[in-house]
Fold this sequence. Notes:
20 strands, five-stranded mixed sheet, alpha/beta, 542 residues, 18 helices
Amino acid sequence: MKKEILDKYNEWLNEGFLTSEDKEILLDMSDEEVIDAFYKDLEFGTAGIRGIMGVGTNRINIYNIKKVTLGLSNYLNKKYNNPSVVIGYDTRNNSREYAFRTALVLNKQGIKTYIFKDVTSTPEVSFAVRYLNTNSGIMITSSHNSKEYNGYKVFNDTGSQIVSPMDKDILEEINKIRTYNIDEENLNNELFNYIDPTIDAEFLKENEKVLINTSLLKNYSNKLKVTYTSFHGVGIKVLPFILEKYGIRYNLVNEQCKIDPNFTYAPNPNPEYEYNFDLAKKYAKELNSDVIISTDPDADRFGVLYKVNDGYKMLDGNMIGSIMLYYLLNNKKIINNNYVVRSIVTSNLVDRISNYYNANVKEVLTGCKNIAKEKNKDEENYLFGFEESLGYMFNIGVNDKNSFSSCLFFIEILCYLKSYGITLEDYIEEIFNKFGYYENKTISVNFDGEDGIRKMNNIMNFLRTSNILNSENRIDYLNRDDDLKTNALKFIVNEDEYFMVRPSGTEAKIKLYFFSRSNSKEKSIERINNMSNLIVNLIKDI
């Protein structure tokens, strides 16, 4: 075992800040467990800090939560007079405790806090920052990860997740802290405030601003049938009320709509995984639903399956976003400076649609925080932005991906289709006929522990120096000198085929994104399968 790892372990064991239970956990650890828990410190990624819960520097626990909070406190006190912070939390194990103790650390540093009394969503925390005019926001969540994980998202004063230089400045403050013995204020103090529950109604009103033609919902929403699953998360507190308000017939996937921190009926509660919808498909067939809609545990992501013949077909994030964009640009007057934002790993079908309607396209790094950054530069001309991982951001007072505005907007699209007596499949075919048949595929290669990080780096270094597919057009984003500089590679096979590779910013995995376009669906699928099989097999041999 490396000396620095053993030193960290002994520091935690002997400094006196651990509870007796956590000290016992440390004492019972094997060498392998010690290495994994202490070989690195948690770092800010695309969504703050996130990791497996447990004891150690590489774990989410109350000690790391308090250290990060003290660093954030020091940053806020240097930047603002009398700063204030909104705090929310999801349904995960320990989320409530982490949130309340976060508030008490902030209070001890003289910072006013506004905390939700009950579980809430990430987009509502983003909204609350702007609505309550606070300087920052914190959401305790690990989004769509399994039950072992939790996390800590930080928002700036616009309700956007933090970007550079704020993230670096906060990290600098965190790194100055040399102790885990961090004081908390008593719960009953004047700086600790609960958020008035009337904010929920204001949040719903804000989401309804995405609607373009409310008469469509008034006349056709009662013709829709919807099945909904919240994957044991907070969406169950909001989505059913939206459906009821507009008179939509719906049923719930009862097993998955119970708040459950262990995600019993959706152990990997990501709406991108079709196996999570096996129960939903049964409920949808019972109601003969037009669509199945889903939200992830913190309700920022939005997933859709739609009825085709006797079954239900899953839409990926690129297709949902492209459908929304196509409808939006068809029904909005586009002026010269209007623009759309997509991430570097989002399908370039976005560009084809936007160019057709004379809307500009801006490209950003992954993470809706980067879309929000572009939105904040010119909100008057911002139209829409999304990334392929089911995150959609409209031009409303929520500066993060938002399942509720996405649901409302998609409902309007479904009502529009009902008004013309056509199906969602017909609408998708219309898009493909106009712009070509686009296919995309995302593959994740997972790694474990310190050795996993080494393997990830070896793969990225190999791809940087190898001439894969005889492609001369390789773009290394590390060589850029603008906001798109990042550890990612793009290989352009030809004008209709390309793929991208990047390490995840929040998890130990490499993500591969494949894209193809052809004049037929079959040809496009064949192209993408050939390309992805070749590259995945190559990576496995490295």
